[in-house]
Write a structure and sequence with these properties.
The structure holds two protein chains of two kinds. Chain A is mainly β. Chain A is 0% helix and 57% strand. Chain B is mainly beta. The termini of chain B are far apart. Classes of the chains: A mainly beta, B mainly beta.
Chain lengths: 113, 113
């Protein structure tokens, strides 16, 4: 049982480039979320999903897209990277009935130059 | 609306001393409250959760937290700090059917030998 996995661990992008951060979970969790963590800001919710085919925006969705075609996968797309998107990104999942008990992946550290 | 405030971005203690990390919440309905811990270069993991079953909640690694409705607080304590407790600690709240918790800004616990 790998839990929540994220790839890549580290990424450097140039301004304007696009990329996809991958997230997968093998716990059959219905709920999945993406957060960004910045110093002194805690975790801020970007997008979340309550099941395959259903996504919604969180607190800071601008510049990011998500889709959820399967229960297992929840990729986060940066459409045109900006230096303000330099951050550590965490994916999390939770089970139906215990939605607020979240299991986190190890994170992706993204730098945009 | 729900929110949490963590008092002190850094707390420094000596090994063997009492650990006290402060969290106050705001919620218009009875909340669920959480503490998560993040060790360096890792994702967050759930330390403990309050769900109204008991006001004193025991978690992993000897930590516990007490829910005080009159003070709207959920402070985290440990009687004797260990070097391995050095980490970032996040308080979180979910309420009113919101299954996505709102996180505080985090408190970094520093343990001196």
């Amino acid at each position: 049982n790998a839990g929540v996995t994220q790839t890549p661990k580290f990424q450097v992008l140039k301004t304007g480039q696009s990329m996809t951060l991958q997230c997968a979970q093998d716990m059959n969790h219905e709920y999945m979320s993406w957060y960004r963590q910045d110093p002194g800001m805690g975790l801020r919710l970007i997008h979340y999903s309550v099941g395959a085919g259903i996504t919604d925006q969180g607190e800071v969705p601008n510049g990011y897209n998500v889709s959820r075609s399967t229960t297992e996968d929840f990729p986060l797309r940066l459409l045109s990277a900006a230096p303000s998107q330099t951050s550590v990104y965490f994916c999390a999942s939770s089970a139906s009935g215990r939605e607020d008990e979240q299991y986190f992946g190890p994170g992706t550290r993204l730098t945009v130059t | 609306a729900q929110s949490v405030t963590q008092l002190g971005s850094h707390v420094s203690v000596s090994e063997g001393a009492l650990v006290l990390l402060r969290c106050n919440y705001s919620s218009s309905v009875p909340p669920y409250l959480f503490w998560y811990v993040q060790y360096p270069n890792q994702g967050l993991q759930l330390l403990l959760k309050y769900t109204s079953a008991a006001t004193l909640v025991k978690g992993i690694n000897g930590f516990e937290a007490e829910f005080k409705k009159s003070e709207t607080s959920f402070h985290l304590t440990k009687p004797s700090a260990h070097m391995s407790d050095a980490a970032e600690y996040f308080c979180a709240v979910s309420s009113g059917g919101s299954y996505i918790p709102t996180f505080g800004r985090g408190t970094s616990l520093i343990v001196h030998p």
